[in-house]
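Re: the request from the purification team.
They wanted to know what the chain is likely to look like in 3D before they choose a buffer screen. I agreed to run a prediction and write the result into the notebook, where they can find it.
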Amino acid sequence: MRVHHYGFATKSIEKSLKPFLSLGYSISSDKIFDPLQGVNLLFLKNENDHLIELVEPAQIDNPISKILSKLGSSLYHICYEVDSFDKVIEELKKQRFVQITAPTPAVAFQGRRVCFLYNPAMGLIELLENI
């Protein structure tokens, strides 16, 4: 498992962008609309190649609004790129991770599958299929 990015929930990518730019991040993608999740995404990178995914609601039905209502703008998941995607999901489920979403092709990753899992001691993680 390799850390791929950190997910940051925000009501507005534009409003969150300025503070990240002042911390040395630069824009590393175009703004992406993900119709399956109902969100807009924008990736930022710093000089250490730490990737941040800004995630804002784009439709009424989306997973981010609930997070924003509870926490406000905040880091809310770590994404790990994994080999043996399906096997890792099953292994994590045996370690008290609860699968939140079915494996789904992700627009932001050229159709590679992603899956969200939750563990009460760790929080939310996203797995990204390495192909």
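For the purification team: The two ends are 13 Å apart (CA to CA).
Please add any questions underneath this entry.
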